[in-house]
Recover the amino acids of this structure.
């Protein structure tokens, strides 16, 4: 599929909860005119503890709800869903709808040299999937896998005390000489500044933080030929929010983050 810049672009994003906000904000930075569809599963969140079969079933329902709005591409803005459900989603939706998964930024982190730490959910930490990425992209680089129990859930509910406690616990497990920390869950990117502050307090220096939102947004636009530009078509960009397939609005928790507020401010929200 190829889209001329003058055409309206619609990008859908899916996640169990508000972890999709970082990638949605990245799409908007690249294409301020893009219409967005945010599809999530608050009734089933979190997806991490679910069986792969249950997760794939729920992810497919969330994806199909987004697909009903006829987007040009669908971003799976969730590491866990990308691990367990991406083949199912692509089998159902492609080639008509390009589906772009999310992969932890291990390759660019390793490219800068080590040591590297990967912050991820307990379900992902030590998983064959993550170990495979480390072996493929970080061979010869010192890598520490850091589980972050409760952090994604705390971010989802904007529980500031719980976020601080989970971040501090993960920072304490991160070696002091780490140069780069990979944020291996999309929720973590919403509190990147606080993660950086905690690491600086724990180690005395501020390592680089690498998330996936920017790369995923750019890949989605490349897939459809919707390259960035500076001319916004008339009418303004729209934002459609789906909770369990039903049109809704951004939650108070979503609006507690700059990414959520930014989407509301530049959208004719529906």
């Amino acid at each position: 599929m190829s889209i001329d810049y003058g055409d309206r672009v619609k990008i859908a994003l899916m996640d169990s909860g508000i972890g999709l906000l970082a990638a949605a904000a990245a799409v908007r930075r690249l294409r301020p005119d893009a219409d967005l569809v945010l599809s999530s599963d608050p009734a089933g969140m979190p997806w991490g503890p679910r069986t792969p079969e249950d997760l794939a079933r729920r992810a497919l329902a969330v994806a199909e709800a987004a697909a009903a709005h006829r987007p040009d591409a669908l971003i799976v803005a969730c590491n866990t869903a990308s691990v367990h459900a991406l083949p199912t989603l692509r089998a159902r939706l492609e080639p008509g709808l390009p589906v772009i998964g999310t992969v932890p930024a291990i390759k660019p982190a390793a490219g800068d040299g080590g040591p590297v730490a990967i912050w991820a959910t307990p379900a992902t930490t030590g998983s064959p999937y993550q170990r495979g990425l480390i072996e493929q992209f970080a061979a010869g680089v010192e890598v520490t896998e850091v589980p972050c129990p409760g952090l994604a859930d705390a971010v989802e509910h904007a529980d500031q005390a719980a976020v601080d406690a989970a971040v501090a616990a993960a920072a304490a497990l991160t070696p002091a000489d780490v140069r780069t920390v990979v944020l291996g869950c999309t929720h973590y990117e919403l509190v990147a500044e606080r993660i950086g502050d905690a690491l600086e307090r724990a180690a005395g220096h501020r390592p680089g933080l690498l998330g996936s939102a920017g790369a995923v947004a750019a890949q989605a636009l490349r897939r459809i030929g919707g390259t960035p530009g500076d001319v916004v078509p008339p009418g303004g960009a729209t934002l459609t929010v789906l909770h369990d397939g039903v049109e809704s609005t951004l939650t108070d928790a979503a609006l507690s983050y700059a990414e959520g507020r930014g989407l509301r401010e530049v959208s004719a929200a529906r």
